[in-house]
Write a structure and sequence with these properties.
The complex is a heterotrimer. In chain A, helix 4 runs antiparallel to helix 10, helix 9 (188-199) runs antiparallel to helix 10 and helix 10 (204-241) runs parallel beside helix 11. By secondary structure, chain A is an all-alpha fold. In chain A, 73% of the residues lie in helices and 0% in strands. The radius of gyration of chain B is 21 Å and the shape is globular. By secondary structure, chain B is α/β, with parallel strands linked by helices. In chain B, a hairpin with a 2-residue loop joins strand 1 (4-17) and strand 2. Chain B has helices at 48-55, 82-88, 110-119, 127-140, 157-169, 187-204, 215-221, 239-244, 249-256, and strands at residues 4-17, 20-33, 37-41, 63-72, 75-76, 93-96, 175-179, 207-212, 224-229, 232-238, 305-308, 311-313. In chain B, the strands form two sheets. An eight-stranded mixed sheet of chain B has the order 6-7-8-3-9-10-12-11, with helices on both faces. By secondary structure, chain C is mainly α. Chain C is globular. The chains are: A mainly alpha, B alpha/beta, C mainly alpha. The interface between A and C is large, with 38 and 51 residues.
Chain lengths: 305, 331, 334
């Protein structure tokens, strides 16, 4: 990820192989210093593995209501039991987990991408564009996001489908990355790179692509993790409130039914336990990854070995 | 020597990095007489700022004071416990730091920042007495008494630095360490601050160690000048003599690179780059860049020796005697 | 000067209010038909209890927002109503007015949120500051990882777990509600104790799940503050450890920590709303949940608006406190 300036300073005798070697050892040492990153990745990997195995083991049709008798506790036939509407809960989890993840990842990706683009426009072209974008971001971040989401969702009939959920969450997800990335670009460190590039005659788009973005990458990756986490939380929150689509099988919707039918008090533990465990694994995994990436995004915080 | 206020012997400060120790200060020895102003000059990375912090025992990990002695008034600062050291700071040895921009607490008024130093050294002061002391100190550095009620961000760079000087002299220390006190200031203000420093030092009868990289400033301010290179002292002499006849090749190049009002011509730089902090050249650290390098220089490390009265150099050009275990007294 | 800052902040607040109401006005009407009117119509057709109120509401609604009125006039009527907090009648609980229903739920939420946020922020900040000191008690270092991991979990999830563990299994705390059934909230000490008892689990969910965030934040801020030049100079002055810690480090670190609080308010409220849903705690969260279930648009709009106003107000207050603590802000532009 060397910028043009950095690359030109590298001694010429480094071979590609030795550079790979350096990257590999560097990564290994980084992981040793930041074990949280490994734990976080393992948690997410475990979830993916669960989904992969689940697809092989279970007939996903059974995720629909009235597939089996309702409220059966776990058994060899129904490893996760069934819910009040007769769904095979294992099937529901296997289908719903990737859906929830999909919402989070897509909304998070869109949010960070749009946010980055707007942040760069705002930081580089200043003037009216900067004023407008900054104004929108400031006001947008002051208004509580969930309230806006509820207002948007209320006006959609029949609950938000997954694509609609993604769009709605993404519509708010770009605000925070935009602010944070703009601040980073305008920070004095970045300014130095930019000024040098400008003075050497580089056109602005080239500066953005060749100088700024590579330096921003760690930061953007860290923002992405946070964004995905926030997006999942927003979508789950909307669903728990009852604004999701009632046919949907996402984890959030499962939680909605758990609350609606008071599954905890009724001792239907097999119904509420898996979604809670899955969500905890998801959030903890993302959190640990974010903590583990902290040093990557902020070299100044490098721990003393 | 008996009349030294401060005596540094073989001070070594290393920074421990994953790639090995960085020997920022590697065996520095010197003495400071009472009422004397000593300068320490060198390029970035020569170790001069580290010395100032080490003398205050403010080196933080991954840095560590690896060895040596710092005798202040008969007490070895490197051996005493934390609390006695705290008491000596400001009261016996004070620091005027670089970066006047940020040396003062942004949310506390100037008055409080002068007083808290006194208070934490057990000076019992009534409110009036404190106010009077503050006003007097501000007056000594040429600031109006109203400055006491201001916050740091309301002051200019020069004013802030003078407040720092006022704080430094509040308890009448014997030694004042000034670490590049004027590097962020423009020339006119620079002069004001240096004049102030000189004045208060003479009034107090204190000694000053001035760390910096501005030879011109040194010429006007210090009595004696020590030249640092790669963590060591390479020359120590009275300032007038150094400028008239610099002995060490590095000093010569340094002085030669100063622009002069009389002669116009090409600028003379010093060829090459400062040595890597991790891998010192063998023998004399300067030999790769030295125009007078001899074969001996890449093998043997020259020691600081007194080659003329009160003139010390670490260079094989002046090394008549072989080092054969003789006790080397330091400047 | 000071007034410049003041004007900007209050202006922002008013802007938000205006935006919120305008969006609330425009969005429903974007689809061509008016969902509120449609809902009212549907209710009228359903007969029974909802029908009575519906007819009266439709009449009133048409009088104010009827399609025969020009859009602009409807808009100004709407703005005027909102400014007076006049959200008309609840569609599902006629003849209760929206504002009354919301008003009744507010104290519950405000107390719960206020107390928990204050506690979590204060304890977290203190913890974070202490953790940066070399002489911090060892126990604290062991508490940190579990607290941090807890902070990754959304409030309401922790709530579900607490209901199960402490309410259902151990039966230490009640499972739902703001007070025992059969009791009515009053200023009687016994009833107050009962209400506090019911609020412990919801409060715990919020506090335990947010402390980690504040602790981590304060620790980070303290570390960067400790890297500042004035900290080095403070030590060079030979100040006592306590003076440096309190007056130089913490005093400066509190500022960004306070800003973080202002920025996090929206998320905290969102989390608290879901916690109330879980615990059936009679605050605005549960109200929101129930009105979404009943498709009671008037109440939903009312609740959303009031929440936006409250958060805007809280942010404004924090913004106004800030210059009192940071002398650099009072003098914004000379």
């Amino acid at each position: 990820m060397a910028t043009l300036a950095q690359e030109q300073a590298l001694p010429t005798y480094e071979t590609r192989a030795s550079r790979l070697g350096v990257v590999a050892t560097g990564t290994f040492r980084y992981l040793r210093r930041n074990p949280e990153l490994i734990v976080g990745l393992c948690l997410l990997a475990a979830l993916m593995a669960f989904v992969a195995f689940g697809h092989a083991l279970v007939d996903l049709d059974k995720a629909r209501p009235l597939s089996t008798r309702p409220l059966l506790p776990p058994s060899p036939v129904l490893p996760f039991g069934s819910d009040k509407q007769g769904r095979n809960l294992l099937a529901v989890m296997v289908v719903g987990t990737p859906q929830t993840l999909e919402i989070g990842v897509l909304a998070g990706l869109i949010g960070v991408s749009v946010g980055t683009v707007l942040a760069l426009v705002s930081a580089f072209y200043r003037g009216a564009a900067d004023a407008i974008i900054r104004g929108v971001v400031d006001v947008g971040l002051t208004i509580p996001g969930l309230m806006v989401l509820i207002t948007l969702a209320m006006n959609v009939k029949g609950g938000l489908t997954i694509p609609q959920m993604i769009l709605v969450v993404a519509a708010l997800a770009w605000l925070f990355p935009a602010r944070v990335i703009r601040a980073q670009v305008l920070s004095s460190r970045e300014k130095a790179y930019i000024d040098v590039a400008r003075l050497s005659g580089m056109p602005t788009p080239a500066i953005i692509v060749k100088e700024v973005l590579p330096n921003l990458m760690p930061f953007i990756v860290a923002s992405l993790v946070g964004s995905v986490s926030a997006a999942v939380l927003a979508s789950v929150g909307l669903e728990v409130l009852g604004l999701g689509s009632f046919d949907s099988l996402t984890i959030g919707m499962t939680l909605y039914w758990v609350i609606y039918y008071a599954a905890i008090i009724n001792s239907w533990w097999w119904w509420w336990l898996p979604p809670i465990v899955i969500i905890i694994m998801l959030f903890t995994g993302l959190f640990l990854i974010a903590v583990g990436l902290d040093e990557f995004a902020n070299p100044r915080l490098r721990r003393r070995t | 020597m008996a009349t030294d206020v401060l005596r540094v012997e073989d001070l070594r400060v290393w920074y421990h990095t994953p790639r090995g120790p960085v020997k920022a200060v590697d065996g520095v020895s010197f003495g400071l007489l009472s009422n004397e102003r000593l300068g320490l000059v060198g390029e970035s990375g020569s170790g001069k700022s580290t010395i100032a912090l080490a003398l205050m025992r403010l080196i933080r990990p991954p840095g560590r004071i690896e060895g040596g002695r710092v005798q202040l008034d008969g007490v070895n600062l490197l051996e005493i416990a934390d609390e006695p050291m705290r008491r000596l700071r400001l009261a016996a040895i004070a620091l005027v730091a670089q970066g006047a921009m940020n040396s003062l607490n942004p949310v506390v008024r100037v008055r409080e920042q002068i007083i808290d130093g006194m208070r934490d050294h057990d000076e019992k002061l009534t409110k009036q007495a404190a106010a009077a002391r503050v006003a007097s100190l501000l007056d000594q550095v040429g600031l109006k008494p109203e400055v006491a009620d201001r916050f740091p961000h309301e002051l200019s760079g020069g004013m802030k630095q003078r407040v720092c000087i006022a704080i430094a002299i509040a308890l009448r220390p014997k030694v004042i360490l000034a670490d590049e006190p004027t590097s962020a200031l423009d020339v006119v203000v620079q002069r004001q601050v240096m004049e102030t420093l000189k004045r208060v030092q003479e009034q107090l009868g204190a000694s000053v160690v001035l760390v910096g990289h501005d030879m011109g400033l040194m010429a006007q301010f210090v009595h004696r000048l020590g030249v640092m290179y790669a963590g060591r002292l390479v020359e120590v002499s009275p300032v007038g003599e150094i400028f008239v006849e610099p002995l060490h090749p590095y000093t010569r190049l340094l002085i030669g690179s100063l622009p002069s009002l009389e002669e116009k011509g090409k600028f003379q730089g010093i060829p090459g780059l400062p040595p890597s902090v991790l891998e010192r050249p063998s023998g004399c650290s300067f030999h790769p860049r030295c125009p007078h390098a001899m074969p001996r220089c890449s093998v043997e490390d020259p020691q600081l020796q007194q080659v003329r009265p009160n003139r010390w150099v670490a260079c094989h050009l002046y090394d008549e005697s072989e080092s054969n275990g003789k006790v080397v007294v330091s400047p | 000067m000071r007034t410049d800052y003041l004007v900007k902040r209050v202006g922002l607040f008013v802007l938000i209010l205006w935006l919120a109401s305008t969006v609330n006005f425009i969005l429903p009407r974007l689809g061509g038909q008016d969902p509120i009117r449609a809902q009212l119509g549907a209710q009228a057709a359903m007969g029974g209890n909802s029908q009575i109120g519906a007819k009266a509401m439709i009449a009133e609604y048409d009088a104010r927002f009827g399609l025969d009125k020009p859009l602009l006039q409807q808009y100004f009527t709407y703005l005027g109503d909102t400014a007076r907090l006049e959200f008309n009648f609840s569609m599902s609980a006629y003849p209760n007015k929206v504002i009354d229903i919301v008003w009744r739920s507010m104290p519950w939420t405000i107390t719960l949120l206020g107390v928990t946020t204050l506690l979590a922020w204060t304890i977290g900040t203190v913890l974070g500051a202490i953790l940066t000191q070399a002489n911090a008690p060892r126990i604290l270092r062991y508490i940190l990882p579990p607290i941090l991991t807890l902070s990754a979990i959304p409030f309401f999830l922790l709530g579900l777990l607490l209901i199960y563990l402490l309410g259902f299994q151990l039966k230490w705390f009640p499972l739902a509600g703001g007070y025992d059934q059969g009791l009515l909230p009053a200023w009687d000490p016994k009833i107050i104790i009962n209400m506090v008892y019911h609020s412990i689990l919801p409060a715990l969910s919020i506090i335990l799940a947010s402390i980690g965030f504040w602790t981590l934040g304060m620790r980070g801020v303290m570390i960067s503050t400790q890297g500042e030049d004035y900290l080095l100079f403070a030590e060079a002055k030979g100040l006592r450890g306590r003076t440096v810690f309190l007056r130089y480090a913490i005093r400066n670190a509190l500022l960004p920590q306070l800003t973080a609080l202002a920025l996090a308010l929206g998320n905290i409220v969102a989390g608290a709303v879901l916690v109330e849903v879980i615990f059936q705690y009679p605050g605005v969260g549960s109200l929101l949940y129930q009105s979404i279930r009943a498709s009671d648009f008037s109440v939903i709009q009312g609740v959303v608006f009031i929440i936006i106003v409250s958060i805007g107000l809280a942010t404004l207050i924090l913004d106004l406190i800030y210059p009192l603590l940071d002398p650099r802000i009072s003098y914004v532009k000379r």
